[in-house]
Specification:
- The structure is a single chain.
- With about 400 residues, the chain is an alpha+beta fold.
- The protein has two domains: about 50-115 and about 160-305 and about 380-385, no CATH class; about 310-375, Elongation Factor Tu (Ef-tu), domain 3 (Beta Barrel), CATH 2.40.30.
- Helices cover about 25% and strands about 25% of the residues.
- The protein starts with 9 loop residues before the first helix and ends in a 15-residue tail after the last strand.
- Residues about 395-400 have low confidence and may be disordered.
Length: about 400
């Protein structure tokens, strides 16, 4: 007996064909997986690039804000310079041998001034001095401060007028070879007593190593690569920008408001008086000589930035003008910027991938030999120019061109 099978209909054949067509072959699966991997790789790379750009932008913004706030703090003190007999302004430079090898690593500025103070400033400093006296008294008697003054110390009455002495200085951070060129900015202030020399101006306030008297100054900020202070004399020409030098039209790097020879030229050539500085004040002079304008330039490098910096790919000698680094993308993007390699400042004149040309021995430093692997520091510059409202046209007879 012969079994008969019904002939498949065209509908069932089409259904089977659709089932076979809906599956993926191994080749198709490999191709799809590869395309998905390429798309995911591209998306991850784009996301990583976006996050990196955002991080760099935020870091740069933070550093610029830090430098701007610091420069504004110094500018506020300078704008209130006291022009009277109690006033003073002293700017000098201190060399530091950070690694103690007998060679100067960095030269940092010191700024000391007497400024006019508001009633709030005087009350605040008077309260601080009172607290310090009370703590010293309690410590001397060996009792708790609350036992001496159970109701709390009485608030001091602020003086009707007065002045504040302010001091700024930079000391080396001194933590490892990569931070050898980094500085920490300190600031201190004290009430000025009539007829009494402020402690900041005493010859022994700074030690021979450049450190201030202990407990008198507080840290403002770290991460400083460069702090420049330029001062315009009565003959400085500013129409074409600031230029430091030894001619009458140049700006000065040091200042002595009373002409007492306090900046030590043997420590640094930047302590030499400017050519346009007024003559030393005669005995009994009524007021200090103040600059027309002051230019403050700051460059910071954050810890995050320092981790991103590149290093020298090869050793360079004193006479070489071209440097090769491990990653040229980690260099400043514009010519005219400054980089710091160990203790030497260099000005970037050309950029070509991982190689860049420089002008050696800038900012008062000397060309030196640098080993491969040395870190290349640089920071975003912030510049503030401060006009001095108390500047007097009649320094020593005759007006000064503004």
């Amino acid at each position: 007996m012969i079994a008969l099978h019904p002939r498949p209909s065209s509908t069932s054949i089409a259904a089977r064909s659709c089932v076979r067509d809906s599956g993926l072959t191994l080749v198709e699966l490999v191709i799809a997986t590869g395309l998905a991997a390429l798309v995911m790789t591209a998306l991850i790379s784009l996301l990583d690039l976006s996050l990196d750009l955002w991080t760099r932008g935020e870091t740069r913004r933070t550093v610029v804000e830090q430098a701007t706030a610091t420069a504004d703090l110094m500018a506020r003190d300078l704008r209130a310079l006291h022009p009277g007999r109690e006033g003073d302004l002293l700017v000098d430079w201190q060399p530091f041998d950070v690694d103690r090898d007998g060679v100067v690593d960095r030269v940092w500025p010191r700024l000391r001034l007497v400024r006019q103070a508001s009633r709030a400033d005087l009350a605040r400093l008077a309260a601080l001095e009172l607290d310090a006296d009370l703590v010293a008294e309690a410590r001397e008697k060996g009792v708790d401060l609350s036992e001496l003054y159970p109701d709390g110390p009485a608030a001091p009455e602020p003086p009707p007028d007065g002045w504040i002495a302010v001091a700024y200085c930079v000391v080396p951070a001194g933590e490892g070879a990569d931070r050898r060129g980094e500085g920490v900015l300190l600031r201190g202030e004290e009430l000025v007593q009539p007829g009494v020399l402020p402690a900041f101006f005493e010859p022994t306030f700074f030690s021979s190593s450049g450190q201030p008297r202990g407990g008198t100054m507080q840290e403002v900020t770290g991460g400083i690569l460069w702090l420049g202070i330029d001062l315009a004399t009565r003959t400085t020409i500013l129409t074409e920008g600031w230029r430091v030098g030894d001619t009458l039209g140049d700006a000065a790097t040091s200042w002595d408001a009373w002409g007492l020879g306090r900046p030590d030229a043997e420590l640094s050539s930047w302590n030499l008086p400017g050519a346009g500085m007024p003559t030393p004040s005669p005995s009994g002079a009524a007021e200090p000589a103040l600059p027309r304008r002051v230019r403050i330039e700051l460059e910071f490098e954050s810890e995050r930035d320092r981790r991103r910096r590149t290093r020298l790919a090869a050793m360079i000698s004193k006479g070489e003008g071209t440097l090769e680094v491990e990653n040229g993308e980690a260099l400043p993007t514009r010519t005219g910027s400054y980089v710091l390699v160990e203790e030497e400042w260099m000005e970037v004149t050309a950029l070509r991938g991982d190689r860049f040309s420089v002008r050696r021995g800038q900012r008062g430093t000397e060309p030196r030999e640098h080993a491969a692997g040395a870190l290349v520091h640089w920071g975003e510059p912030v510049v503030v120019e401060v006009p001095i409202p108390t500047y007097r046209d009649t320094w020593r007879g005759g007006g000064a061109a503004r």
